[in-house]
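@here heads up, posting the sequence + SMILES for the flavin-adenine dinucleotide run so it's all in one place. Ping me if the SMILES looks off, I pulled it from an old spreadsheet.
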Amino acid sequence: MSRIVVLGAGISGHTAAAFARSRLGGEHTVTVISPRPDYNWVPSNIWVGVGLMTPAQVTLPLAPIYERAGIEFVQAAAREIHPDGDADTTTPYVSAERADGSRTRIPYDFLINATGPALRFDKTEGLGPDAGHTHSVCLPDHAARAAAALAEEVERMRGGQRRRFLVGVGHGTCTCEGAAFEYIVNLEFELRARGVRDMAEITWITNEYELGDFGMGGMHLRRGGYMIPSSVFNASLFAERGIDWITRAHVSRIEAGCAHYETLDGHEDQHEFDFAMLLPPFTGVGLQAIDRDGAEITERLFAPNGFMRVDADYTAKPYEEWAAGDWPRTYQSPHYSNIFAAGIAFAPPHPISAPHKSPNGTPIAPAPPRTGMPSAMIGKAVAGSIADMIGGSPSPTHTASMAEMGAACVASAGANPFTGTAASMTVYPIVPDYHRYPRYGRDQSRTFGEIGLAGHWIKIVLHHLFLYKARLRPGWRLIPE
Ligand SMILES: Cc1cc2nc3c(=O)[nH]c(=O)nc-3n(C[C@H](O)[C@H](O)[C@H](O)COP(=O)(O)OP(=O)(O)OC[C@H]3O[C@@H](n4cnc5c(N)ncnc54)[C@H](O)[C@@H]3O)c2cc1C
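bot reply: prediction finished. Complex structure tokens:
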């Protein structure tokens, strides 16, 4: 009998738990530990943030799903991993904290860390919806508050007041530019739909060196017989929509109605706003690792940014020497063969986009994204490896390197069944491989982009399909990640 414990019930952890359960016999247990009672289909938070969906439409209660599937659910936040047990037991365990502050211990034979990101609004003074002056769409509740504030701004514009909107990322080291991009084009679409676009000034602020970098070093997209750099693709989308942009920016401080920022050339400036949606930088969630004697060994398991070290090549190298082969394949901890990290929780070996610093030494470059599709594929691969290891395999059998997988992204650019659009992009591989594809690092026959109404319908279908899959309804395994 083996105990598989999954930390986190997001896209990666939920996928890993579901596949582990479906692969393993009833003598083995699968337990998910997660602090929230719900599963959140995060990509659709964008639509909550513009008032087109409610939080209830993008979340599912986990307890009934897990009960039906035979997965144990512990609603708590993991705090410590004891990979060698402690003075009383040699059994590895996780110590988790419930909402009431009490602690619980969950023993494991295999552990999957899929805790996603900590939302580090605190890294920029004045950032965020709780202690700051900006909105977010990272969580359904944040998105609902953004939608309510947007509705108020629309009323002001209807009353004749001009309003300024600032959307993008709130720190020089952020990732997830794609999500902020989706929000700004949806916002612009909604302002048009509500008849107030002419009263709004909309500005994009980003740490990207060029538009369309998305933390993936940009890409060259095949489109309509042309090969278009994503910088041109995005500039065109913004120009068509009358959206201004500020690139190469580190937002350093937010006051009510004003964002202060530094650009790569060392220039300091500010931008006034009436409504801002700026995503925060991410780190790991702060799990600690403790050895048998009670000494902290967090640095052994985790990188300084709190993400878990796995089978990547973390040797510090100059940018010119970064290689696709540095990226992890099995997501197994190099120190503990029974610990894996999946989704955002694993530590990337290095960024994908070129690193840049301002003359003041401020890093201004996107961190690498780990979007939904790779997060789910990694979760599935890790579950497959663990099932095989329980069956007797000495090492992981499944791989899911981001340097060997493609990703499809459908970025909503306006939600309406007749006039809506979405930018659909596929890229292969996610991490460019200049050894295999010397020119652009990617297979250009599999890297393309298109924008149109069909993309919107695909996005809607994906929303319902992935929520159906997350409910683990009949045939869920047939729905791809
Ligand atoms: C607004 C937005 C829109 C996006 N849109 C897209 C899109 O269109 N397409 C796309 O591919 N990707 C998109 N992404 C990215 C995508 O959401 C992420 O790649 C994906 O959610 C990562 O999955 P994950 O399981 O690693 O992390 P998450 O989905 O964040 O899940 C982490 C889980 O861990 C739990 N957790 C946190 N702390 C602990 C703890 N201490 N102990 C136990 N559990 C813990 C959390 O509650 C959560 O359940 C978007 C992201 C955002 C923010």
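MO: Residues 3-118+282-359+369-390 form a domain with the FAD/NAD(P)-binding domain fold (CATH 3.50.50.100).
MO: One more: The pocket of flavin-adenine dinucleotide is lined by residues 7-13, 33-36, 42-43, 45-46, 77-78, 114-117, 137-138, 176, 179, 285, 343-345, 370-373, 375, 409 (CB under 6 Å).
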